[in-house]
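Quick one, probably user error.
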């Protein structure tokens, strides 16, 4: 294109615009301030990378590849800076692999309007694809024999393990400079180092840590042109064990680009651009945080941003799937699960053997009633990647769910081992200890649950850990201590539903039912559209309404709770405790609104009660059965169920419904 008008027409053609955006093109060429998205739109029309336009005319050919520098090219944003929120996430050197002099990383967050999965189905105008590695064979001299290659110091590569692995892998295709050459080049920028040793290709890079993950990025300089040739992320604790695998993949990509005989076979290796990887890492960091609505939306926003830049980034699709699965209970469950299916399906198409993709798919299988398949998938990941704490924690969750459904003690033992191993492998993550606390509670080990919760708090003091700890105190009859801990949970995250929900339970036990209604109602309203797919929240709210004397509101809430638990049963994700909740909801609903529960349904419930009661071994489920028996006039069965509940949780004897059972037997 020889004119600005032609360029504007090309932009209009690519974006389907009715009029050519001549004004913005004119502003850009007059070097007036423009949004970064404008540069991306222009770059797309020119068929070049956006970062190549971040130069003045005197800096070189705009259409050439990026010239080398002392640091990686600054990431370009994927959308106009509208409704943006600066990323609160700071990157730090890996604890095991400290960065000596890391390049600055600029991360631009996206407004909430971009966090829906549908936005990732097509690249935004001007969006960057995964980096297209230019063929090095066109840059290398064809008649000077095997190309000479220098591997410089990689920032954050403690012990030079990655550099040495790369030398080994690339020595079959290049004349690789010896490690001693770093004495001559370590203080030089890549261009000067290449001149000093007369190398054809010069490699450098960086390793940086974001949360539990470390990002590896590698760059190659040839004939004065510098470009990224590899990027991937691995758990920081697994990095020393993964350098060989990383080096093999990166070397294969570089050899693919430098094949001077034209014998390259297979697809061009795909890897994320540095800006896309930044967004992916930020998304993963939000997933590591408590799964409240804000963190889930932020995670989705980052994964969507990564996919706008690198649409074939399988791990970003997997991360989006994970975040949608975390969202599914907050509002429109069916829509979230469908979107998660699309995201996980796309990730699987792109990289079926990737451990991150397989773990995300296992999570999806668990949430959609295929828990046996999920367990098998997690085990496959762990067999190849034993230091993957994320997969180990997922396995623990799946094993716990299997135990809740089938009651086999060995499943609980296996879940305990998986959670403990995950916590020991990575001393910086809190979720495995949170899982371990829940597992120990199901095992009847309340002291173990409290100890695991306290250990989790030492790693991250958040509302979920505090709420669980408060519930363990309540289980032990320490009502005031439970109340104080729930207050801390609300202070830790005032915008989360968790503090209000559990404070509502504390006030329920204290007999302040109106206050309990207010807190539980506010907790539900806090979540998305106020329609969370958690039957316990609706059942608890119904209990509070009933005790406060509002029978109509209680009946509506019991119906809502019953709807959710019936869907869980249909999907195959309901536990034995959920079955106990189901018969409780219908029993109380028949008391409040007899016309809503026909005699045939009531007789069916009565016929199921003995089998359900005999299958239970979890205290809250026994508590629900005690309530059910009591309201059905079976006081002996109610006392037996309460006795089973209080054997683990003596505090349950103070439940308002069952206090009547102890004082005034029917």
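Nope, works fine. Designed sequence:
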């Amino acid at each position: 294109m020889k004119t600005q008008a032609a360029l504007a027409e090309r932009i209009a053609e690519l974006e389907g615009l009715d009029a050519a955006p001549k004004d913005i093109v004119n502003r850009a060429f007059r070097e007036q301030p423009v949004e970064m998205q404008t540069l991306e739109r222009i770059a797309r029309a020119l068929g070049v990378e956006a970062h190549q336009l971040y130069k003045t005319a005197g800096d070189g050919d705009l259409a050439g590849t990026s010239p080398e520098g002392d640091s990686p090219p600054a990431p370009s944003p994927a959308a106009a800076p509208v409704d943006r929120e600066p990323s609160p996430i700071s990157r730090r050197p890996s604890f095991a692999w400290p960065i000596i002099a890391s390049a600055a990383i600029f991360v631009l967050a996206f407004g909430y309007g971009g966090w829906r999965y549908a936005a990732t189905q097509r690249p935004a105008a001007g969006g960057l694809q995964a980096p297209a590695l230019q063929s090095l064979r066109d840059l290398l001299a064809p008649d000077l024999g095997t190309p000479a290659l220098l591997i410089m110091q990689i920032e954050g590569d403690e012990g030079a393990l990655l550099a040495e692995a790369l030398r080994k892998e690339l020595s079959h295709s290049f004349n690789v400079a010896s490690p001693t050459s770093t004495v001559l080049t370590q203080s030089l920028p890549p261009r000067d180092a290449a001149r000093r040793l007369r190398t054809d290709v010069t490699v450098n890079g960086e390793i940086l840590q974001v949360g539990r993950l470390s990002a590896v990025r590698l760059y190659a300089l040839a004939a004065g042109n510098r470009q990224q040739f590899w990027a991937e992320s691995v758990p920081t604790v697994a990095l020393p064990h993964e350098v060989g695998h990383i080096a093999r993949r990166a070397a294969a990509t570089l050899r693919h680009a430098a094949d001077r005989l034209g014998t390259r076979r297979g697809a061009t290796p795909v890897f994320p651009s540095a800006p896309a990887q930044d967004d992916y890492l930020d998304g993963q960091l939000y997933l590591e945080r408590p799964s409240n609505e804000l963190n889930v939306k932020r995670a989705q926003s980052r994964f969507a941003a990564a996919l706008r830049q690198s649409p074939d980034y399988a791990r970003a699709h997997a991360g989006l799937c994970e975040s949608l699965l975390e969202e599914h209970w907050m509002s429109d469950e069916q829509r979230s699960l469908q979107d998660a299916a699309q995201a996980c399906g796309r990730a699987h198409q792109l990289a079926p053997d990737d451990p991150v993709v397989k773990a995300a798919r296992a999570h999806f299988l668990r949430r959609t009633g295929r828990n046996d398949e999920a367990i098998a998938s997690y085990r496959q990941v762990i067999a190849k990647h034993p230091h993957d704490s994320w997969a180990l924690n997922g396995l623990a969750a799946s094993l716990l769910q299997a135990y809740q459904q089938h009651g086999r003690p060995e499943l609980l033992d296996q879940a305990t081992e998986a959670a403990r191993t995950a916590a020991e492998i990575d001393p910086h993550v809190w979720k495995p200890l949170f899982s371990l606390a829940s597992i120990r509670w199901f095992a009847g080990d309340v002291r173990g649950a409290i100890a695991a919760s306290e250990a989790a708090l030492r790693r991250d003091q958040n509302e979920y850990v505090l709420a669980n700890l408060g519930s363990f105190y309540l289980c032990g009859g320490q009502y005031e201590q439970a109340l104080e801990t729930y207050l801390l949970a609300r202070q830790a995250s005032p915008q989360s539903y968790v503090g209000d929900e559990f404070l509502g339970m504390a006030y329920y036990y204290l007999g302040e039912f109106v206050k309990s209604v207010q807190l539980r109602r506010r907790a539900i309203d806090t979540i998305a559209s106020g329609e969370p797919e958690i039957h316990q929240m609706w059942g608890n709210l119904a209990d509070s309404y009933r005790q406060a004397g509002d029978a109509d509101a209680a009946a509506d809430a019991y119906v809502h709770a019953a709807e959710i638990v019936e869907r869980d049963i249909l999907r195959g994700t309901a536990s034995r405790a959920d079955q106990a909740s189901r018969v409780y909801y219908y029993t109380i609903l028949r008391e409040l609104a007899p016309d809503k529960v026909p005699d045939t349904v009531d007789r069916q419930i009565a016929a199921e009660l003995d089998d359900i009661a005999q299958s239970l071994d979890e205290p809250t489920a026994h508590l629900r059965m005690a309530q059910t028996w009591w309201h059905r006039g079976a006081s002996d069965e109610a006392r037996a169920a309460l006795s089973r509940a209080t054997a683990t949780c003596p505090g349950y004897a103070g439940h308002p419904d069952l206090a009547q059972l102890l004082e005034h037997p029917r």
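The chain is about 55% helix and 5% strand.
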